């Protein structure tokens, strides 16, 4: 392989593994808890829906949704919960409901999702259906386009087996084929003792371009995303059943709702070099640069205006230009270009926001 090809491959891998701004399915297997922690002031909502279609003539659809809601508290700490409307055991461990609710906290002392190297998270939890104190130690290792995952799970009361303690082990792998597409698989099982079928899953994972959202198409035999639900397969009649479905991730930045409670901030202009002739205007709204590419002449300037309720930046790739400080809501930034060339840029807090200035 020549030096040019090697350099191109290295650059490609670096683009694939750039740390993400929100919880991403391109770094987590479908049945793995992962090590993700929302940033402070961010609420993470994930919707997982799996289903099984019974054979004819009835073709009845058996639905198994799980909702995840978690809030980042800062200092790599999160608090949240899982709610699965149809537990793998129905009623069990003294519960008179099939609804499985588990609350959890998570602390990530090492690493960051999407960053090279190791990431470690500890997740204590309480399962109301099983009346069980559960916990998970999750470890991720990312190198290039590959992420390997492992988890050790402790359970004080197994679902449907009152008073029975359990230990589960799980592992998974994610391979990112491009910046926007990945494939993943995982396997987990109770091991002390082995009880029921192992839980497995495979998925095709997608990053939706121009957004912080990810989506996956899945096949699995696990019915919920709780610590216990992801450790045992679904086979109530002793036969193998495959559930199909999808998961969608939605990060909610609480700052975006600030206009509901506060007046719009006063306009602020940053940059603004003396005598700059503004030849192009770019609005930042709905987490997008509204003009993907603008063309100006040497010596002219571009003005970016932040119409979002969250902060943005204009950061030039490769430090080709100095870029902006943080641009507050209702603020603007003006930059004059003195040399011809092509200047790609992005927003540092939201790296999926990109644009290009062409200077002739």
- Alpha-beta content class: mainly beta
Intertermini distance: 36 Å
Number of helices: 1
Shape: elongated
CATH architecture tag of the largest domain: Beta Barrel
Looking at CATH, the homologous superfamily of the largest domain is: monomeric porin ompg
Give the proportion of residues in helices.
under 10%
Strand order of the largest sheet: 1-2-3-4-5-6-7-8-9-10-11-12
CATH C-level of the largest domain: Mainly Beta
The ordered H/E elements are: HEEEEEEEEEEEEEEEEEEEEE
The averaged pLDDT comes out at: 84
Strand segment count:
21
Descriptive notes:
With 360 residues, the chain is mainly beta. It is built from 1 helix and 21 strands. A 12-stranded antiparallel β-barrel has the order 1-2-3-4-5-6-7-8-9-10-11-12.
